[in-house]
Design goal:
The protein is mainly α. The chain has helices spanning 3-25, 49-68. Helix 1 (3-25) runs antiparallel to helix 2. The two termini are 20 Å apart. Residues 1-25 form the signal peptide. Keywords: Membrane, Signal, Transmembrane, Transmembrane helix.
């Protein structure tokens, strides 16, 4: 597997993992949302910025693994 293919797969996985996190962190237009929960209805309110940090660390680790992987695998069959 070529380096370009590994990098593109890593970026695709990172994008799929980060898209919902980034979308939830963006401010809404004029404060309007399609679906809103009543105030105090759940305990999910609070500082969830650590999720973005965890996602960034995981993407960074995946990028390092892809970049440092060597391609000198020998074939199994003769």
């Amino acid at each position: 597997m070529g380096l370009f293919r590994k990098i593109s797969i890593g970026l695709a996985v990172g994008t799929l993992a980060a898209a919902p996190t980034v979308a939830s962190a963006l401010p809404t237009i004029d404060g309007a949302r399609a679906v809103t929960a009543p105030s105090g209805a759940n305990e999910l309110d609070g500082n969830n910025s650590w999720l973005i940090g965890v996602a960034a660390v995981l993407i960074g680790v995946a990028a390092i693994i892809v970049a440092t992987d060597n391609d000198d695998d020998e074939p199994v069959s003769p």
